[in-house]
Specification:
The protein is of the alpha/beta class and 169 residues long. The protein has five helices and seven strands, in the order E-E-E-E-H-E-H-E-H-H-E-H. The strands form two sheets. Strands 1, 2, 3, 4 and 7 form a five-stranded mixed sheet that branches. A two-stranded parallel ribbon has the order 5-6. The chain starts with a strand and ends with a helix.
């Protein structure tokens, strides 16, 4: 649910990236449906921990969710969310969290034989968003402009997807 971009000109919501010699960067947190369609996105500095962004990412969903009492809604998360804070954020939002535990064997969490882990769906969406150069390298100083650019790219993703399905004419 996360990815980071190096800012070209800085601005707010940037922070020192702990994995890139302390250079400033922006972290994107993305929530997708089961097929990779973006539902909600937030940005923060690269030094912000993922579990702190989970509640904000869930709150950023722009489409109306089905009633959780009628339809079970699952939330697949990776090892970075293996803590009580992330689990509480998911259950407070009426999701059933599926978190791969630290030390757990590969393939034992939410996958059946021959099926890929659900995490690749989010990574594929991040890969598609990274094709937009303005998102890959952050040129915007204002964080609201950068977030709007990401949201515009997400809406373009949905339009293309619905057009291919024949829903948008």
């Amino acid at each position: 649910m996360r990815c980071w971009a190096r800012p070209g000109s800085g601005g707010k919501k940037t922070g020192k990236n702990p994995t890139d010699r302390g250079k400033k960067g922006t972290k994107k947190s993305l929530l997708t449906d089961g097929e990779g369609g973006p539902l909600g996105v937030v940005i923060a500095g690269a030094n912000v921990v993922e579990q702190k962004l989970l509640a904000a990412t869930i709150g950023a969903i722009v489409v109306e969710r089905p009633d959780p009492s009628e339809e079970r809604q699952n939330l697949c998360l990776d090892k970075a969310f293996d803590n009580p804070t992330a689990e509480k954020a998911a259950t407070d939002a009426s999701y059933t969290p599926h978190i791969r535990r630290i030390g757990e064997e590969k393939g034992s969490c939410n996958t059946s034989k021959g099926e890929k882990p659900r995490r690749w769906v989010v990574e594929r969406t991040f890969g598609w968003l990274s094709k937009c150069r303005g998102i890959l390298v952050r040129y915007d100083k204002k964080d609201i402009n950068y977030l709007a650019l990401i949201q515009l790219a997400c809406s373009l993703y949905w339009f293309r997807r619905l057009y291919r399905m024949g829903v948008a004419t």
